[in-house]
Amino acid sequence: MIFGAGPFSAAAIVAPVLRAFHNRYPKIAIRVEVNNWLQLLRMLNEEQIDFFIADTRALPPDEHIDVTSLGALPIGFFCCRHHPLLQPPRSRRRAMVSTDALLAYPLASVRIPPIARHELAASLGLPDGAVLPVHVECDDITLLKQLIPDTDIVLTCADRLVRDEVAKGTLVRLPILNLAQVYGDWGIVKLAGRTLSPASQIVADALQATMADEKTAGRPRASATPSARRGS
């Protein structure tokens, strides 16, 4: 079984799905192609992959593909608990962090789709056409998380990627002024009229369930129920 994933979605939700699939079906071989949506769409049309998951808003209208919308992912900015942006507030309620204060420090991130990067910039009040400045960019989220302790680096990523660290208190989610709650319109893309293999369908269903878990975990999402659409 071969499927594709955009770098951001690969880091955010693919790993736990693969782990659960392998535990249940250890003898089934899986290959994941991590790439941008243009390359994944080409691979899908050439039948090199069964399906792919990515932010689908940039996909051109195409009657030859089916897209199952998965909704959006919450994204935040995270720092170590001793970061200067977390100086003890005078009141019990922590003060909101302004864009100017945030951007005074280096940002780290996995590769974010360009459209989501522009959305983040707009949400932070940056000028039209501006993109979020990222100083350290790496698709290895484990490496990025290791960079944050005892530094002034701020990590921006999906909430679920640092849920354990936030729960332990090693990372803190910054209260950013005017930050939108969710970003993206993630979807599963396959060829129209094609039925996925049983193994691929299991993985696709698990990806949908993982996205749905964001709502039950108390995370905001743009869409509660995945729905199929054609030519999006």
Describe the structure.
This protein has 232 residues and is of the alpha/beta class. The chain folds into two domains: 118 residues, Periplasmic binding protein-like II (D-Maltodextrin-Binding Protein, domain 2); 100 residues, 3-Layer(aba) Sandwich (D-Maltodextrin-Binding Protein, domain 2), CATH 3.40.190.10. 31% of the residues lie in helices and 24% in strands. The protein is globular and about 55 Å long. The C terminus is likely disordered. Pfam families: LysR_substrate. It comes from Paraburkholderia dipogonis.
Distance between the termini: 25 Å
Largest sheet: 10 strands, mixed
Q: How large is the count of helical segments?
A: 7
| Structural domains: how many | 2
Protein name: Substrate-binding domain-containing protein
Domain LysR substrate-binding: 4-211
Biased composition (Low complexity): 219-232
Region (Disordered): 213-232
